[in-house]
Amino acid sequence: MSRFVYLHGFASGPSSQKARFFRERFAELGMGLEIPDLAEGRFEQLTISGQLAVIERVAHGDPVSLIGSSMGGYLAALYAARHPEVEKLVLLAPAFSFLTRWPEELGEEKMAEWKRTGVLQVFHYGEGREVALGYQLIEDAREFEDYPKFPQPTLIFHGKHDTVVPPGHSITFSQQHAQTTLRLMESDHQLLNVLDDIWMETEKFLFG
Q1: Domain segments of the chain: what residues?
Q2: Are the CB atoms for 196 and 18 separated by under 8 Å?
C-alpha cells in the first residue's frame, strides 16, 4: 500500500492552511497523510540537500506518492528524479528554477549583501515573524537542476495570477514531461480559493 507525504513550502510548516486541508481530506477517506517539518526546526540552516534527506528518512525506500506545495513541489520533483519508488506526484505551484529566481526576486545588490553577511531576514509564515536564513541555501541549490526529469505520473496545479512562481515555469516543465497534466487555475500562488477543485481532481488522480 502506497504511503502519502505532503511537503510544505518555503518558510512554512506542517500546520499551514494547505497542509491542514489535505490532512483533513485524507482523514475523511480514513487514510493518513504524513507532513514532516522539512526544516526540522533549523530554518536558518535550510538547504535543498537537508530537506531531501528529511524526505528520504520519512519515506525510507517505501513506495510513496508526494504532494508538494511551492518549494515542496520542487523538492518532490527532485526526489522523484532520484527515487523510482515514488509512484505519483501532485505539485501545487511548484518552485521550479529555484536558484535562478532568487536574484530576480531580490535583485543583485541584496543577493550580494546576503552573500557577504551570510544572513537574510525573511518572513516565516509558520512562525509569523522575521527569521534569519543562511546563504548556504543558495550555495547548496547550485547542485540541483532547475527542471528535474522523471517518468512518474504528475498532476500540477498553478495559479494563472501567481507572481511568486510565475506559471510559465510549470508550463515549461509540462512541455518537457509527457506524463504531466497541468491545470492552470483562476488563483494566485496560494491557490486557497480553489482547494476544493484541486482536491476533487487530486482524489481522482491518486485513487481513481
Answers
A1: 3-98+147-207
A2: no
CATH class in words for 3-98+147-207: alpha beta
One pLDDT digit (tens) per residue for the chain, 208 residues: 679 999 999 999 999 999 999 999 999 999 999 999 999 999 999 999 999 999 999 999 999 999 999 999 999 999 999 999 999 999 999 999 999 999 999 999 999 999 999 999 999 988 899 999 999 999 999 999 999 999 999 999 999 999 999 999 999 999 999 999 999 999 999 999 999 999 999 999 999 8
- Nearest 5°: phi and psi at 9? -85, -175
CA distance 168 to 162: 10
Q: Which three cell numbers stand for residue 68?
A: 508538494
